[in-house]
Amino acid sequence: MVRAAVLPAVSAPLEITGIELPEPGPGQVRVALAAAGVCHSDLSLSNGTMRVPVPAVLGHEGAGTVVAVGEGVGHVAPGDGVVLNWAPSCGSCHACALGEVWLCANALNGAGAVHARRADDGSELHPGLNVAAFAEETVVPAGCVLPVPDGIPLTDAALLGCAVLTGYGAVHHSAKLREGETVAVFGAGGVGLAALQAARVAGASRIVAVDVSPQKEELARRAGATDYVVASENTAREIRALTGKQGVDAAIECVGRAATIRTAWESTRRGGRTTVVGIGGKDQQVTFNALELFHWGRTLSGCVYGNSDPARDLPVLAAHVREGRLDLSALVTERITLDGIPAAFDNMIAGKGGRALVVF
Questions:
Q1: Strand 355-359 and strand 61-69: pairing?
Q2: What would the pLDDT profile of 63-89 be if each residue is shown by its tens digit?
Q3: What predicted TM-score, i.e. pTM, was given to this entire model?
């Protein structure tokens, strides 16, 4: 038996309870978690913004040590450090054939599987986003584990699995930020802080962080922000004032709210680029009129998992970490146990802090 954070039903409180895991079958890997990040996507799963089968063990950003492997698994072995990959690509769907593995049609098929059973009543549990990282141990398909790059501590490596891949990818793969350009990052949570660091790596000349909380300014500046704007109805005007009344070249929206997306778009220059990373609900409607779309010549694009290929990008990110360009610890504002996850959810709802990291 291992302890895990279980979501019994949509919008129900998380329950920290014992679960029974099966031994890894063919093509499966059992992992003892070293750390797991508490991501806003986990909150979106719990409140129904994103739909997955329940009851479920949540958590999708994690790293740990391989305990056992099933038949046919050759790329990792017991004792290896691994990063969990919550969106493994199938390699055969239309998106994968185009090289767009982050849009794999089959990436989340595993979320409907029976992952484990509750120890108290034997009821079936699903893995929230394939990997069920909010647990002391997990069993996942082999495609959901990637070797930890050399020189990266396991607890730090957990952040590579979502926040850093997403934030870095939004800047480098989606917005394609170039050296000397200006950028605004909306939302200074875990992904936003990673995006700020990625903008610094890209050589942006001005990096504007935007958040509703004045208390996050120091955190944002430490991540690379040259300017900090407390979100208000005047945000777009303030950002244009910082950029010679032109607006930034690119905006990265990490909030997922209609008003924030609209403000991010208005904050860019004529011909600017807005990348939407935040996951919003179906009720969040963003509107534009036809004339402004023509006149401003701006682009607005969605961004899934940073448009990243984890197998390709993890070594790149690790090199940035080893050479001091990315500071993974700067994303973490609190280290907690499994029992601290509900409070971490409350902090996200209140807009407090960066990434909470569950350390096992």
A1: unpaired
A2: 999 999 999 999 999 999 999 999 999
A3: 0.96
